[in-house]
Specification:
mainly beta; about 525 residues; elongated; about 5% helix; three-stranded antiparallel β-sheet
Length: about 525
């Protein structure tokens, strides 16, 4: 009788590499003839836009642009404030051994710092240090044997695996627009000095062939008007449909929302005042639809009567042990600064360390703050930079050897409040935490009968086996061409799942004369 193999296909995503690098992006800017001479730079901002990502053998090639915005005062006119816009292209490579063109990559970018230097009254040097993190993954279709048709005397060992079944990974762009009028107490908008746009997910649902995303765009605008600086903030809700053929309704999702571009137009209201701001934000939304599944697959087999030929293969699985969301609330008082007005505050969270200690996940991070304020003592516009460390602990339900810790961050909110004449910053950082483990399994991928009968005639009627370190009952039964059930019948007090080194096990010879 031939052996019937019942097969299945696992569609899994494998992390092939994750590395980071830094790129120093430099440019020199000459002022437009219409601009006043450089006097004092008040602040410089930058935004990174990734233009293209290409995976080639052993390398990840990234092309992008840093969009600078410089705000300065002129020596010629004391009260006026001017802006300079400049772009600087960059190209960077990240070496990741083993990656190839058929794999997909995701990039995270952030500006670590920006420096500016006035070379003369018409010329400015700009430098930005950009951190780039590249992650390369591959979706594999792996054929497994999940069962074997009824075959007399054939023993099989099954193992349960947890795996992430991938239905689709897609990226698309969303345009979020909103026009609003600022309040009567605000000055007219003569020049936009700074616009900070942050976007975050509020809710996401997987339906057939798409992910429905609901989120919020927060826009903070610092502008100049009527000889003073003012700020305005607006929350803009948005919905987006991320088309994803193959996605199943009710499955799980992962999203990354990035702001790649922001633009604005200042318009007149009914009274002819420049008090209407028309904002447009371009978002890049990357999504993954998947489900966490469990399956039994055959990892070993043998016959008690006949020699069989087994083909062995290996599969590399990323098993999810724990998934959770943690929100960390950050408080920081700015009492060391003499702040009369706080025009803008923005932040960027970074994980500096994550590890498991004594059955707890320990996460350490930093919230980097950047603010613009009016000094109450000098009347000058200054900038502040602060790094706020934080640390928290999450209990682990089970011990994980060599865990793979994956944490993605979103700064959900950041705002300032006054408390006893002191500005206090409140921020909320959303941590999406996944604890995984890499599991390399040897599995059966082929099974053939040889027709060669196992000869047991010359074996002793009873064999005493002394258990060795790392032995399991399956290995002992396979070695002596018997079954676990027959060993347990011959050893009444034997625990099937907890045999100890040095323990003696009776192996009885059985001969099937009907074979």
């Amino acid at each position: 009788m031939s052996i019937e193999l019942i097969k299945d296909v696992l569609r899994i995503e494998e992390l092939r590499g994750k590395e980071d690098t830094q790129a120093l992006v430099e440019t020199e800017v000459y002022l437009n003839p219409s601009k006043a001479d450089l006097g004092k730079v008040l602040w410089t901002d930058g935004l990174v836009e990734i233009l293209s990502t290409k995976v080639i053998r052993d390398r990840l090639v990234i092309s992008g642009v840093v969009k600078f915005k410089v705000v300065y005062k002129s020596q010629e006119e004391e009260n006026n404030i001017y802006t300079i816009d400049a772009n600087a292209d960059f190209r960077e490579e990240i070496e990741i051994s083993g990656i190839t063109e058929d794999m997909s990559a995701t990039i995270k970018s952030n500006i670590e710092y920006i420096e500016e230097e006035i070379l003369d009254e018409r010329k400015l040097s700009l430098k930005a240090l950009v951190s780039l993190e590249g992650k390369v993954e591959q979706v594999n279709n792996i054929e497994i044997i999940k069962d074997i048709g009824e075959k007399q005397n054939l023993q099989t060992l099954k193992e349960t695996i947890k795996y992430k079944e991938i239905y689709g990974r897609e990226t698309s762009y969303a345009i979020v627009k909103e026009a609003f009028e600022i309040g009567e107490e605000k000055p007219v908008m003569e020049e936009i000095l700074k616009m900070t746009i942050q976007a975050y997910e509020q809710e996401a649902t997987v339906v057939e062939d798409r992910i429905i995303v609901s989120g919020m765009v927060n826009a903070r605008i610092v502008y100049y008007g009527e000889n003073r600086i003012a700020t305005v903030e607006e929350e803009i809700p948005f919905n987006h449909f991320l088309e994803m053929p193959g996605a199943l309704a009710g499955s799980q999702e992962e999203l990354i929302i990035e702001v790649v571009e922001g633009s604005y137009e200042v318009l007149e209201n009914d009274e002819g005042e420049l008090k209407i701001l028309d904002i447009e934000a371009k978002l890049r939304i990357s999504g993954l639809a998947y489900s966490e599944n469990e399956k039994n697959l055959i990892v070993d087999a043998y016959s008690t009567k006949e020699k069989i030929k087994i083909g062995i293969g290996e599969i590399n699985l990323i098993e999810n042990i724990k998934s959770t969301i943690h929100r960390e609330n950050i408080l920081k008082d700015l009492s060391e600064y003499r702040i009369k007005e706080l025009y803008n505050i923005s932040g960027h969270p970074t994980i500096i360390d994550s590890r498991i200690v004594d059955d707890e996940l320990v996460v350490e991070g930093i919230l980097s703050l950047h603010g613009i304020y009016l000094d109450s003592d000098t009347g000058e516009i200054n900038t502040l930079r602060e790094e706020i460390p934080y640390k928290y602990y999450l209990p682990m339900e089970e011990k994980v050897i060599d865990p793979l810790i994956d944490i993605s961050l979103d700064l959900e909110s950041i705002k300032s409040n006054m408390s006893k004449d002191i500005f206090v910053i409140e921020g909320t950082i959303k941590h999406k935490i996944k604890i995984n483990r890499n599991r390399l399994l040897s599995v059966i991928n082929s099974l053939e009968e040889t027709g060669e009968i196992i000869d047991k005639k010359n074996r002793p009627s009873i064999t005493i086996y002394i258990v060795q370190r790392n032995d399991i009952l399956w290995d002992i039964a396979k070695r002596y061409n018997t079954t676990i059930e027959e060993i347990l019948q011959a050893n009444e007090n034997l625990s099937p799942n907890n045999i100890m080194p040095g323990e003696k096990i009776i192996i009885e010879k059985t001969i099937d004369i009907s074979f």
